[in-house]
Design a protein that fits this description.
Layout lengths: L1 E5 L2 E10 L3 E3 L9 H11 L3 E3 L7 H16 L8 E5 L10 H9 L6 E5 L5 H13 L6 E9 L17 E10 L7 E7 L7 E2 L17 E4 L2 E3 L5 E2 L1 H8 L2 H12 L9 E4 L4 H11 L10 H4 L6 H9 L1 H6 L1 E10 L3 E10 L2 E2 L3 E2 L1
Parallel strand pairs: 2-17, 2-18, 5-6, 5-7, 14-15
Antiparallel strand pairs: 1-9, 2-8, 3-4, 7-8, 9-16, 10-13, 11-12, 15-16
Helix pairs in contact: 2-3, 6-7
């Protein structure tokens, strides 16, 4: 277990953007019958997802999410010192998308900008990286952007993944504050022996794209994909997700002596309603303290925690102080948990693009 405490940094704002296009799981042309569709919806909790139009990238969604937040915060673009872009579906192999976003957003040429190609634990991992850099005081303001276009590398003919994943972007505004009362507190873990549980094998330097990798192949009835498509081994992911995340949260609670009854919210990566409920019940946290957004947006990877905060808890986050736990987990296999506070932050209304 790796742990980290980061003082003098606070969350001051959140925003999110999702595609306008809605894909209803009940209507997908993958099912043999409506009963098959309903079984998947009932087990995952995912009714519908947002899907980008052809030609739209994750960075396009990110730009749309940033603009209203900067306006609502009253931040000048020149005041932003740090841009952290957490995304696995980047625009190009090179350069990093953060460099392109610096120009598109009109940020200062003196801005520190970089990509983190992380997945489902990406908000917690990005929060740790960004807040650590800010905590020294040399950098004052940061835009932590989580964005993903999952539907672009998942086969539309694969019923094991298409009903699960959606597209979205979210922005977390962070600011250095030497008077901040509450530090961020983190624990992390990784088990690379399970890396193949969620993998897009072809397209990198280990397995370059070949003509064969671009050919569709039927692996089972209702499961057709190319070698370049993401593969999710459901049983391996399930075994990991019901074991490691609750263990991580218990380690966080023990290490930092957290009174679980005083927690206002537990924000879980929106992977699967059944999995998340197993985690919630194992920690004995009341259902009303664990909000869900996966019914409307599906699994949006590292975007899921801030998207849930914006769409399900904006009232509480803008009106009072909140003590929160967060836990992200998935591809890698990686996981991370965090305790953090918010105090009357800005939550810009969700944007559709």
């Amino acid at each position: 277990m790796a742990s980290l405490t980061v003082p003098k940094v606070k969350i001051v704002g959140l925003s999110a953007c999702v595609p306008r296009r809605v894909e209803e799981n009940i209507d997908l042309p993958l099912w043999e019958s409506p009963d098959d569709a309903r079984k998947v919806i009932d087990s995952t909790g995912i009714e519908r997802r947002r899907v980008v139009e052809p030609g739209t990238t994750a960075s396009d969604l990110a730009v749309e999410a940033v603009t209203p937040l900067l306006n609502d915060l009253g931040w000048e673009k020149e005041s932003i010192d740090l841009l952290v872009y957490v995304c696995a579906s980047r625009d190009y192999i090179a350069p990093q998308t953060a460099c392109i976003l610096q120009a598109r957003l009109g940020l200062s040429a003196g801005c520190f900008a970089f990509d983190l190609p992380m997945g489902c634990a990406g908000w917690v991992q990005g929060l740790a990286s960004a807040s650590s850099l800010l905590s020294h005081g040399g950098l004052k303001r940061c835009l932590l952007i989580n964005a993903e276009t999952n539907t672009l590398n998942r086969s539309k003919k694969d019923k094991s993944v298409r009903p699960l994943f959606g597209d979205a972007a979210a922005v977390t505004a962070l600011e250095y504050d030497p008077e901040c009362d509450h530090p961020f507190e983190f624990v992390f873990g990784v088990d690379g022996t399970g890396a193949e549980a969620v993998m897009a094998k072809y397209g990198g330097t280990r397995c370059p794209t070949t003509p064969e990798a671009l050919q569709e192949k039927e692996y089972a009835p209702g499961i057709v994909r190319k070698g370049t498509d993401m593969v999710v081994n459901g049983m391996d992911v399930f075994s990991f997700a019901i074991r490691r995340p609750p263990q991580s949260l218990r380690e966080l609670i023990s290490l930092y002596d957290i009174d679980i009854e005083k927690i206002d919210w537990l924000f879980l990566h929106q992977a699967n309603r059944f999995i998340d409920e197993k985690i919630r019940r194992s920690l004995k946290i009341p259902a009303e303290k664990v909000p869900y957004s996966l019914d409307d947006f599906g699994n949006v990877s590292g975007v899921s925690i801030p998207l849930t905060m914006v769409t399900r808890c904006a009232g509480a986050l803008t009106e009072r102080e909140n003590q929160c736990l967060g836990c992200g987990f998935g591809v890698g296999l990686t996981w991370g948990s965090v305790r953090f506070w918010t105090n009357r932050i800005i939550c810009s209304p969700m944007v559709e693009y």
